[in-house]
Amino acid sequence: MRDFRLALAQIKPTLGDLERNLERHLDFVDRAAAAGADLVVFPEQSLTGYFLSDLVADAALRRGAELLQPLRQASRGIDVIFGFVEETDDHRFLPAAAYLHHGEFAHVHHKVYLVTYGLFDEARDLAAGSSVRAFDTRFGRQAMLICEDLWHPTTASIAAADGADVIHGLSSSPGRGVAGGRGQLGSAETWRRLNRCYAQLHVCYVAHCNRVGFEDGVNFWGGSEVIGPDGEPLARAPEFEEALIVADLQDAALRRQRARLPLRRDEDPALNSREFARLAARRYQTDAG
Fold first, then answer.
1. Domain spans of the chain?
2. CATH number of 4-263
3. At a CB cut-off of 8 Å and minimum separation 6, what does 276 contact?
4. Is 12 assigned a catalytic role?
5. 7-11, 23-27, 39-43, 175-179: least confidently modelled range
6. Annotated catalytic residue, options 87, 147, 204, 239
7. With 90 as the cut, is the pLDDT of residue 179 above it?
8. Is residue 147 among the annotated active site residues?
9. Three-state secondary structure along 51-116?
10. Nearest 5 degrees, angle CA 198-CA 167-CA 195?
11. Do 151 and 122 meet the contact criterion of CB atoms below 8 Å apart?
């Protein structure tokens, strides 16, 4: 990995107002560039807002959409990761995270696990993705996952096995619950445990960018953070307010931690492949009767 400065843009999108949200993106891109960042990351569905429901078809975008041109132009000076809903050629609508470099789409990840419990019913209007891939950037290999993806540990494992030195998690996580006896927000504590766990077990950087603001009566808590490969936080945003935070990601920290804890070296993808193939065959054979 090449050393670089990462910025997380913890913004408050306006539901369904893509033009207003675009202006917010451009403002935070400028602020990140002024802070010396090489890459700026926005939250899940940062261009559209989250609880779209019947607005999905109106808010969805193709990669060549004219509305995206200013953001693509801005990425000529600083790489940008943002969230949107992508429309496919066959008119499916998928929650997406895009990596822009020098005006082009370097990679797009579609959320593979849609949320259908609690407050959420994403599968009513959205389609799920079908792959997890790390991809090459000018800083090294990275991966993007979207919110619920990270509640299924195999997605981060696949990204790490595919060589990701940085795993970006884009989320729209509402504030819920109280952590037992400590007066802390329950969802915040859970996310911080997840982020630290992934960073330590996969010996990589984890960047979690969560949104803020109210939408459809739900309050999103923010608390975006960057975690180093030793599990320690490098930067953390405040809760419930817009913020831009930056962190310097260094290859020396990866090298030091991977020499100390060679978990990646010892991981056996062939073992995982065999055992998951066995489990899948058993499950789907059972489902088929």
1. 4-263
2. 3.60.110.10
3. none
4. no
5. 175-179
6. 147
7. no
8. yes
9. CCHHHHHHHCECCCCHHHHHHHHHCCCCEEEEEEEEECCCCCEEEEEEEEECCEEEEEEECCCCCC
10. 35
11. no
Whole-number Å distance between alpha carbons of 190 and 269 = 28
Q: How far apart are CA 192 and CA 94, in angstroms?
A: 27
Among 12, 86, 87, 111, the one annotated catalytic: 111
Residue 256, amino acid = R
Structure tokens at 255: 């090298």
pLDDT higher than 60, residue 180: no
